[in-house]
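User: structure tokens for Circadian clock-controlled protein, please.
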Amino acid sequence: MFVAAFVFALLTVYVTAEIPSYIHVCGRRDPNINQCILDNVNNMKDKLCMGIPELSVPAFEPVIIDKLVVADTPNTKFYLKNVVINGLCDFDVKSLQSDLKKNHFKVDLILNHIIINATYDIDARIVIPINQKGDAFVKTDDVRAIANMDLTITSKNGKRYVYMSQMKINLDLKTYDIQLNVDERERSELSRIVGIFIGSNQKDIIAVVKPLLEEVISKRILLIANEIVKHFTYEELFPDRT
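Assistant: Done. Predicted tokens:
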């Protein structure tokens, strides 16, 4: 998910005094630039996930959300709070297309596992009144993601600068597994009722949660990418060579 941030990190180190040994610089006239970027993504995946202090790149995960509203109707209120998302670094890129003339990147990838830990808060009147809070664990596998990224070039004091102006991600979420930690006294009945509710409403729940996840992930990538590029000119970031 952070291929865009990687591209910026890759090009930024070109202007440093010493290029780290784990990076092979890709010039913008390289006829195999897409493959060059992909090779570097695979080499640097772990480092970008944990953060690269020497490049001022923060760790990509965990991604934290204060609150996700899963359902909010007169009869059912289902919230996830203190949401911690991991697994976004566990991905495989299927394809990458770069167009530096249009300043556009498109990435097609598979997220092998998305793992969410949170505190759930349910207030529902489904079969019997339910008012329960506890720990929640959510997991979904093999999520396809399409990311489209656009760069914008601006001028300041006679020099050109670049920043990522737009980031759109489409997550193909099909299903998920969820485990809720419930009070022992209510475990049997509550688990049965909540299981029925969650199981029979997966499509509706995904439709609500999906755009929220896409938004927060996009903002995270924009933050990391623009933190990297803000101190460098366009010519420094994108050297005109093979």
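User: Anything notable?

Assistant: Helices lie at 3-12, 33-50, 187-200, 202-229, 234-237.
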